[in-house]
Amino acid sequence: MTAPLATHLRFGRILLTGAAGNLGRQLRPRLKRYCDKLRLSDRADLGTAAPDEELVLADLADQAAVHQLLEGVDVVVHMGGISTEQAWSAIRDANISGMVHLYEAARAHSVKRIVFASSNHVTGFYRQDEVISPKDPIRPDGLYGLSKAFGEGLAQLYWDRFGIETVSLRIGSSFPAPRDRRMLATWLSYDDAERLVMAALSAPVVGHSIVYGVSDNPLTWWDNTPAQHVGFRPQDSSEAFRAEIEQRQSVIDTSDPATRYQGGAFVRTGPFFD
Description:
Layout: E1 11-17, H1 22-31, E2 35-42, E3 53-57, H2 63-69, E4 75-78, H3 88-108, E5 113-117, H4 143-162, E6 165-171, H5 183-186, H6 190-202, E7 208-213, H7 242-248, H8 257-260
Parallel strand pairs: 1-2, 1-4, 2-3, 4-5, 5-6, 6-7
Helix pairs in contact: 1-6, 2-3, 3-4
C-alpha cells in the first residue's frame, strides 16, 4: 500500500458504499487516511469497525435506508451495486433504482461531490483495435454496462440541474495482477485505484467528468486526454507481467468475440432477463 498521497485536503466524513466488495475492501484502509470519519456501507458483513469507522448495513434498493446513509456526509465514493452481468431485476434494483436513491439523498443532504464507480463495459462493444476516449459514444456490452451508462447519465443530470459534481470512473480490471492478455490493456493496480479516487475527490472543479480507470500500461485502448483536468497520474504498469502472460496465453482465438471486443467475456454473457 502506498503512503498517503500528497494532498492537503482532509474530509470530515467520507461515505464508501460497496465496502465489502473487491475494490471496496482495498479502499477501506486507504480512504481512512484522508478523513476524520469513514462511513462504510454494504449489504454484506463488514466485520468489526476500526477506530473512526462507522459501519452501516444498507440495501441500495431501500430508499429510506439510503437517505439515512448520506446524512452528515461530505463526499461519497460509490462502489456499491452489481458489478457483473446478472439478471435484470438485480441490476435494476441496485444499479438503476439504487443510483436514483443515492443522488436524491445527496441532493437532500447537500452532498456536493460523488465519485461513481462506472465501468469500462459502458464501451465494451468497441473493438480491441480501436483507441477511444471519454468523448466517444457509449457502446454497452450488456445490461450491466447499460446500467452504468444510466448512472453516468444520471450524474450528468444532477450536475446540470442541482450542481452535484461527479467523477465517473470507467474502471478497467482492478486486481493484484493482470490475469490474461486482455488485462494487459485494462489493468488498474490497487495503488493507482487510490490515486484515481483521490484525484477525483481533490480536483478543484470537475462538473461531471468521465475518466477511464487504468494504470500506465503500454498496451491501451483508452485515451484519458479529455479527463486530464481531473489530475489522475497512474504510476504502475502491466508491463512487468507481460512475458509470463504471453507465455501462458500464447494463442488467441480471434473468432471469439471476447478477443475482438474490449468488453471481453462480457460481450457473450447472458441470459439478460429473469
